[in-house]
């Protein structure tokens, strides 16, 4: 018969919180996973590991604006480099972000991108 020490299967509050310290920010984690990827999208991160507002896929020749979690802002994808600071501060995007509640009906005509989804060009 195997002896079980039940105190070993429970995590203390300190142990629980410590595991979150080891997790990487979204952009930093994807950038690390993308190292060595030839021709693929590699995100640009800020010093805290979140996404820079302007993201570009140099192989595809397109750029777009994202929030700090990598969610693409609507209608920002372009072959030029967008002025993401001006776009983020515009009333249209601000209203879109503020009015984006999870309980509302989704408009299937609005396509939103993310670094976690494939890039369709």
Automatic annotation (TrEMBL):
<dbReference type="GO" id="GO:0005615">
    <property type="term" value="C:extracellular space"/>
</dbReference>
<feature type="disulfide bond">
    <location>
        <begin position="56"/>
        <end position="63"/>
    </location>
</feature>
<keyword id="KW-1015">Disulfide bond</keyword>
<feature type="region of interest" description="Disordered">
    <location>
        <begin position="95"/>
        <end position="121"/>
    </location>
</feature>
<dbReference type="GO" id="GO:0035592">
    <property type="term" value="P:establishment of protein localization to extracellular region"/>
</dbReference>
<feature type="compositionally biased region" description="Acidic residues">
    <location>
        <begin position="98"/>
        <end position="110"/>
    </location>
</feature>
<protein>
    <recommendedName>
        <fullName>Thyroglobulin type-1 domain-containing protein</fullName>
    </recommendedName>
</protein>
<feature type="domain" description="Thyroglobulin type-1">
    <location>
        <begin position="24"/>
        <end position="84"/>
    </location>
</feature>
<keyword id="KW-0677">Repeat</keyword>
<dbReference type="InterPro" id="IPR000716">
    <property type="entry name" value="Thyroglobulin_1"/>
</dbReference>
<dbReference type="InterPro" id="IPR051950">
    <property type="entry name" value="Dev_reg/Prot_inhib"/>
</dbReference>
<keyword id="KW-0964">Secreted</keyword>
<dbReference type="InterPro" id="IPR036857">
    <property type="entry name" value="Thyroglobulin_1_sf"/>
</dbReference>
<dbReference type="Pfam" id="PF00086">
    <property type="entry name" value="Thyroglobulin_1"/>
</dbReference>
């Amino acid at each position: 018969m195997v002896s079980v020490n039940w105190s070993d299967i429970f995590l203390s509050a300190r142990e629980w919180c410590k595991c979150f310290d080891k997790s990487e920010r979204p952009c930093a984690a994807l950038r690390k996973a993308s190292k060595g990827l030839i021709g693929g999208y590699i995100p640009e991160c800020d010093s805290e590991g979140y996404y820079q507002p302007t993201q570009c896929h140099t192989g595809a020749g397109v750029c777009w604006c994202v929030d700090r979690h990598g969610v693409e802002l609507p209608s920002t994808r372009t072959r030029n480099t967008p002025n993401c600071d001006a776009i983020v501060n515009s009333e249209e995007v601000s209203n879109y972000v503020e009015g984006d509640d999870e309980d509302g009906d989704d408009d299937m005509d609005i396509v939103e991108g993310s670094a976690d989804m494939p890039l369709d060009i």
